[in-house]
Amino acid sequence: MDEQLKLKRATYHLWTFFTSKLISSFGAQVYAFAISFYILELTGSATNFAMNLICSILPRTIVAPFVGYLADNFSRKRIIIFSQIGSSLAIAGLLLYSLSFGLSLPAIYITTCLLSLASTFTTVTFTSSISGLIDEKRIQRAMSLNQMSLSFASIGSPAIGGILYGTVSMPVFLTIYLSASIIAVILESTMNFKLYAKRKKVAVDEQKESMWQSMKAGFSYIKMQQILMIIISISLIINFLFGAFQVGYSFILIEKLKMPSEHYGLTEGAWAIGMLLLSLYFSMGKEVKYPLLTSKRGIICMGITMGAVALPLLVELSYNMMFIFYIAIMFTFGCLGMLVNTPIGVMMQKTIDDDYKGRVFSVLETMAMALMPLGTVLYGFLYDYFPAQWVLIISSVILIIVVLYLARPSIVRMAYPELDKKRVKVEAETIS
Q1: Which are the contacts of 121, defined by CB distance < 8 A and separation ≥ 6?
Q2: For 297-349, how does the pLDDT look when each residue is reduced to its tens digit (9 = 90+)?
Q3: 425: Cβ–Cβ under 8 A, 6 or more apart, which residues?
Q4: Same domain, yes or no, for 89 and 180?
Q5: Structural domain boundaries enclosing 75
Q6: Of the candidates 245, 395, 406, the residue with the CA atom closest to the CA atom of residue 333
Q7: Domain assignment present for 201
Q8: Last residue of a domain, one of 154, 175, 192
Q9: How far is the CA of 372 from the CAs of 116, 365, 369, in angstroms?
Q10: pLDDT recorded at residue 308
């Protein structure tokens, strides 16, 4: 295909990808909002609500490694389309059930499991496919637009969900989500997933690896890439230690500082706005030259910001000052999240072999999903028995120390040897 034509096609992919993710994210988040409200209204039980969360997390954790194998060995386009169709069928099934018998908790739990499974197939395979859909120069833009679609959904879905929940019935909610899922399938079916793909072709007479061999080969590949191992290790530690913030933030604002729900909601919105603005910046700005170094600095700033969440428990502030302080904290978190994730995401897209992307990203997905509940449970226990401010401050200090060690200067220079040459050159010029 002519290079000019390929670039035009890549531009089409860029905006189709963004539109598809925006539509499906909005649909999923509005559905999650409605179902959460419905369960709490129907039962008034936090346990039933938590069960729905487990039905969302557990299937993702179990199937992610197998999804990686499939994404590396079969047509990525087919996997994405079939998984999106699976989502549509799960929603349609719940819609028909609700019209025939009314909604029940078992039906909701089964649907949540099915949607979680389908979402894992779509997310891992789409992440593995970005470098095949978009030209190398615009991968950062694609990653930023992906995050932007999630930010738009985070900002808009609670408001839209709240309005719709008070005015329309649950079957109408499900019909809206079903429509969004079908539109996403249509858009994704028009994309060419092999446009820039660099996957090896298997010879007809060549024996194909078994699933187990393929998964072992994926782990061996990760072990051989030292910088990749460090990035994965940092990601896992952040996911675990960030439980201190995820549990502590709500606990401190709602339980300790008695902040009203509408003000708490506004502080949460500031996080999404921070993400959105940085996504916009990365989508239009130049590619980050040293992603690992940028992400390292971003994580250190995240550690400092996480510790700062405890400040109103240590220093007396007026209510208005406290409210403005937490809006600033959440806005900063949103910005820093993008500053950490986008450059590293682009680096991984460009450095990981196309034939291993599915397995590498599925390992990340599995580990992150497995450590999140563990971190949440542990920090839930710690906040019940220890002062909240010290749990946050100690966790933030551990996070900073671990990142300073794992991404120490010698590792950064290993990733970017030119930095060492620059340092030697500056020292030589200083001496002379």
Answers
A1: 63, 67, 70, 79, 80, 82, 83, 86
A2: 999 999 999 999 999 999 988 999 999 999 999 999 999 988 998 888 888 88
A3: none
A4: yes
A5: 1-192
A6: 245
A7: no
A8: 192
A9: 16, 11, 5
A10: 94
Give me the CATH number covering residue 234. Answer: 1.20.1250.20
Residue 149 within any structural domain of the chain: yes
Query: What's the Rg (C-alpha) of the chain?
Result: 23
Q: Is 42 inside a domain boundary?
A: yes
Q: Which residues contact 408 (CB under 8 A, 6 or more apart)?
A: none
DSSP 197: -
**110 and 222 together in one domain:** no
Q: What tens digit of pLDDT does each residue of 162-216 get?
A: 677 667 788 888 888 898 889 999 999 999 988 888 766 654 445 566 778 887 8
Q: What is the DSSP string of 40-102?
A: HHHH--HHHHHHHHHHHHHHHHHHHHHHHHHHHHS-HHHHHHHHHHHHHHHHHHHHHHHHHH-
If asked whether residues 21 and 160 sit together in one domain, one would say yes
* Gap between the Cα atoms of 67 and 126, Å rounded: 11
Q: What is the DSSP string of 62-78?
A: HHHHHHHHHHHHS-HHH
Question: Is the pLDDT assigned to residue 37 strictly greater than 80?
Answer: no
Tell me if 326 sits within 8 A of 426, measured CB to CB.
Answer: no
**Do 182 and 243 belong to one domain?**
no
Instruction: Specify the pTM.
Output: 0.77
**DSSP characters over 269-331:** HHHHHHHHHHHHHHHHSPPPS-HHHHHHHHHHHHHHHHHHTTHHHHS---HHHHHHHHHHHHH
Higher pLDDT, 7 or 150: 7
